[in-house]
From TrEMBL:
Key words of the record: Amino-acid biosynthesis, Aromatic amino acid biosynthesis, NADP, Oxidoreductase
Ranges for domain SDH C-terminal: 470-498
InterPro entries in alphabetical order: Aldolase_TIM (IPR013785), Aminoacid_DH-like_N_sf (IPR046346), DHquinase_I (IPR001381), NAD(P)-bd_dom_sf (IPR036291), SDH_C (IPR041121), Shikimate_DH (IPR011342), Shikimate_DH-bd_N (IPR013708), Shikimate_DH_fam (IPR022893)
Listed EC numbers: 1.1.1.25
Annotated source species: Papaver nudicaule (Iceland poppy)
Record's protein name: shikimate dehydrogenase (NADP(+))
Enzyme class label: oxidoreductase
Domain Shikimate dehydrogenase substrate binding N-terminal span(s) in chain numbering: 229-309
Domain of life: Eukaryota
Chain segments annotated as transmembrane: none
Gene Ontology terms: biological process: amino acid biosynthetic process; aromatic amino acid family biosynthetic process; chorismate biosynthetic process; shikimate metabolic process
Coiled coil: none
């Protein structure tokens, strides 16, 4: 998308280095363009890459505003000069293709494209559009639509799978991202990536680097199982990087993608095939996930939230779990075992301990049930006493207000778990409990993982307590998810190494 020839050369060199197969050259971005001279130079320059020339007019979402006949003559010239592909719009394709002599026609493959920047039409309408494009004499059909909902992409996948001709089917915007990532699974002819984040020629394009390194695009095929994180927002999630790295390291034929979902029930009903094998659920869908599953693990049911959904291969039923509490509790147990204080016996080091949970929301509930299941005596602390009391009644524990924690010290060697967002970026100077009150605790856990070392953890460490970070919980719940998704032991070292670099 260079504005000058020089910029085009720089970008083409970058693309070549990253390892693309085809460089799409957007002639409509050039501020000055001499077709006779520049086309030859561009083709000569792209020695190891195939070239695709597009000269997109304003009326189809491009930059070119001049005379159409000049534009189409330039595409003809590109074919004569040895372009591997040219892209021409459906609106002018009939006329353009019929004007070519046989010799020119044989030189390049012609992509005939149609763009819809508002929506994704019905299955029937897309089918009609394919037929119209084929009737122009196109070698390759290209249809780009817009995702109003993530379920719109399913229609595009259906069309691609049943297409008898080479087909490029893309759904624009973040909700349509999976159309670009899963292109090789459904037999799409190609997918587009950008050289740099944010510099896109269509909404929702990932970078080439992400396609190749984060999503392992070259390893995806028809039998690849699809996993992913369901959330809103979802773009910030580190899970795709973590899981795809792990899948690749053991040769597991799966890909993990982000799903930006508005309506969970609609999403699960649409992507109901065995190919969609498992999902992580994050905010705001954890409670809805409970209702959408066919079966729910008893502890997840008690907590009232599901963060892991697995499609059972034998009957396709959706089984819901909560690995959040497993991640946190196992990280706390490991922290106690490794703290230098001796915890004898084969049972949990949490058993019999006084376990103070700050927060009475979903995460607080998860930790309270998890600690109770391990034999701890649970105390809930919350700003509003009523909410603390309600959760304490549910788990069979005691309740205090957050203010009371300052002087709460019935015994030494207690465990403290913060499940609120107090101390999270940008308010990193905040802490739920003053430093002087921390000396009675053997271990302090904070679910916040941005920053990794919160003020609470720093002060707990200074007070002599063992500490467990929110990153440990994130890794712990991911281990459990990975094992439920794949049936394989989690590559724990790889998970740790990956997270340490983020």
């Amino acid at each position: 998308m260079g504005k000058t020839m020089n910029q085009m050369f720089i970008d083409m060199a970058k693309a070549k280095e990253i390892g693309v197969d085809i460089a799409e050259i957007r002639l409509d971005y050039l501020s000055t363009f001499n077709p006779h001279q520049d086309l030859q130079t561009l083709i000569k320059y792209s020695t190891t890459m195939l070239t695709l020339f597009t000269y997109r007019p304003k009326w189809e979402g491009g930059e070119y505003e001049g005379d159409d006949s000049i534009r189409l003559d330039a595409l003809k010239l590109a074919m004569e000069a040895g372009a591997d592909y040219i892209d021409v719009e459906l609106q002018v394709a009939h006329e353009f293709i019929s004007s070519l002599d046989e010799k020119t026609r044989e030189k390049s493959k012609i992509i005939v494209s149609s763009h819809n920047y508002h929506a994704t039409p019905s299955l029937e309408e897309i089918g009609d559009l394919v037929a119209r494009i084929q009737s122009t004499g196109a070698d390759i059909v290209k249809i780009a639509t817009t995702a109003v909902d993530v379920t719109d992409v399913a229609r595009m996948f259906q069309i691609i799978v049943h297409s008898q001709v080479p087909f490029i089917g893309l759904v624009m915007t973040e909700k349509g991202l999976i159309s670009r990532l899963l292109c090789p699974k459904y037999g799409g002819y190609l997918t587009f990536g950008t050289l740099e984040e944010g510099i896109v020629s269509a909404p929702g394009q990932p970078t080439i680097k992400d396609l190749l390194d984060k999503y392992n695009l070259r390893l995806i095929g028809p039998d690849t199982k699809v996993f992913g994180i369901i959330g809103k927002p979802v773009g910030h999630s580190k899970s795709p990087l973590l899981f795809n790295k792990a899948f690749k390291s053991v040769g597991f034929n799966g890909v993990y993608v982000p799903f930006l979902v508005d309506d969970l029930a609609k999403f699960l009903a649409t992507y109901a095939s065995a190919d969609f094998a498992g999902f992580s659920c994050t905010i705001p869908h954890k409670e809805a996930a409970l209702k959408c599953c066919d079966e729910v693990d008893p502890v997840a049911k008690l907590i009232g939230a599901v963060n892991t959904i697995v499609r059972r291969p034998s009957d396709g039923k959706l089984i819901g779990y909560n690995t959040d509490y497993i991640g946190a509790i196992s990280a706390i147990e490991d922290g106690l075992r490794g703290s230098g204080k001796i915890y004898q016996g084969s049972g949990s080091p949490i058993a019999g301990k006084l376990f103070v949970v700050i927060g009475a929301g979903g995460a607080g509930k998860a930790l309270a049930y998890g600690a109770k299941a391990k034999g701890a005596r649970v105390v809930i602390a919350n700003r509003t006493y009523e909410r603390a009391r309600d959760l304490a009644d549910l788990v069979g524990g005691d309740a205090v207000t957050l203010a009371q924690l300052e002087t709460f010290c019935p015994e030494d060697g207690m465990i403290l778990a913060n499940t609120t967002s107090i101390g999270m970026q940008p308010k990193i100077e905040e802490t739920p409990i003053p430093k002087h009150a921390l000396s009675a605790y053997a271990l302090v856990f904070d679910a916040v993982y941005t920053p990794k070392m919160t003020r609470l953890l720093l002060e707990a460490e200074e007070s002599g307590a063992a500490i467990v970070t929110g990153v440990e919980m994130f890794i712990g719940q991911a281990y459990e998810q990975y094992e439920r998704f794949t049936g394989l032991p989690a590559p724990k070292e790889l998970f740790r190494e990956t997270m340490s670099k983020l």
